[in-house]
């Protein structure tokens, strides 16, 4: 392309004439392009195609919707008590007259018992219910779960309370004596839509038992415990691993942060352990865990999850934890909830 030199023009008429010619030549050059090739594409001048960062609303709404879809409802007569059985085999036994209103006064007649059962890590991811547990000293570590549950009761629009304990009966392939009852703690809310950190309830234990299965009626082993509060409950045990521990950080693709995605670690061959990396460093743009309790040499998979409109955006990639491990999330996949569920369920 020829370079146009500016000439000193003494007369205003000559200045405007040359300016007009210069502008005309510039317009012609922009239309034809710099190449003499007749097949070269034309230059199109317009607004740049800039995609605004999304705010994470779709992901938050999907998590809330998945929790709500998981609710099962049952009718119970307070005066007689009775049992209810969830779709996945959880059994709740309510003694007579232990349900009260918000003032502690006895409730009579029919009430609605609501139950959520979560037994696998794909459900944990879709409902954002990881197995992050808090030690007595405040450290956050990963738990291995035997089942996560939400239980409450309503009469009409009024939420109800308990004046005594009811029994929870949870199916298991094999009874693990290290399993304990953990309560879901969240100082900001007390309902279904809470970000939970599990805390061990040292006053409650679990006993082995047996009973029939959820669907086929087969005889199965069970954990038996007693709960005296509604809300979130988890049966868990702490991970015992003698290997040296380290910190783990995750770098996510540009445009993502703690407002529009979640990052998890799932442990190979522990299908009910799911750690949420719930700390985000705005200076480094890294997701991290809390206290460097991840064993060096552990085989894991990192799960990145976001959502844009009706599609999930995700990545699932294997790794072996190294010292001061930094994982970089690579190629992202777009798919349905069923696609994401299938990928997670195929993990070791």
Automatic annotation (TrEMBL):
Domain of life: Bacteria
Name of this protein: DUF4382 domain-containing protein
Biological source species: Aquimarina hainanensis
């Amino acid at each position: 392309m020829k370079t146009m030199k500016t000439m000193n023009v003494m007369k205003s008429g000559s200045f405007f004439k040359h300016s007009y010619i210069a502008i005309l030549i510039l317009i012609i050059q922009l239309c034809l392009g710099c190449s003499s090739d007749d097949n070269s594409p034309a230059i199109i001048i317009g607004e740049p195609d800039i995609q605004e960062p999304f705010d994470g609303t779709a992901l938050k709404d999907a998590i809330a919707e998945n929790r709500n879809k998981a609710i099962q409802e049952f009718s119970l007569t307070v005066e007689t008590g009775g049992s209810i059985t969830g779709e996945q085999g959880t059994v709740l036994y309510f003694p007579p007259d232990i349900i009260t209103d918000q003032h502690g006064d006895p409730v009579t007649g029919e009430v609605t018992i609501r139950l959520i059962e979560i037994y696998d890590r794909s459900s944990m991811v879709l409902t954002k219910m990881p197995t992050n547990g808090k030690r007595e000293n405040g450290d956050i570590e990963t738990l291995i779960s035997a089942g996560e549950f939400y239980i409450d009761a309503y009469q009409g629009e009024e939420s109800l309370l308990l004046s005594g304990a009811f029994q929870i009966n949870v199916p298991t392939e094999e009874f693990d004596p290290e399993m304990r009852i953990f309560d879901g703690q969240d100082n900001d809310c007390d309902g279904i839509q809470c970000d939970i950190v599990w805390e061990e309830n040292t006053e409650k234990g679990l006993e082995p038992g047996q009973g029939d299965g959820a669907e086929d009626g087969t005889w199965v082993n069970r954990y038996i415990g007693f709960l005296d509060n509604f809300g979130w409950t988890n049966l868990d045990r702490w991970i015992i691993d003698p290997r040296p521990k380290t910190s783990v950080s995750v770098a996510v693709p540009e445009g993502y942060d703690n407002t529009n995605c979640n990052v998890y670690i799932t442990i190979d061959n522990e299908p009910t352990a799911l750690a949420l990396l719930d700390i985000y460093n705005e200076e480094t743009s890294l997701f991290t865990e809390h206290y460097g309790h991840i064993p060096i040499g552990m085989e894991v998979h990192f799960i990145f999850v976001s959502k844009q409109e009706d599609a999930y955006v995700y990545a699932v990639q294997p790794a072996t934890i190294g010292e001061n491990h930094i994982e970089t999330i690579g190629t992202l996949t777009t798919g349905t909830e069923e696609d994401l569920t299938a990928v997670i369920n195929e993990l070791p």
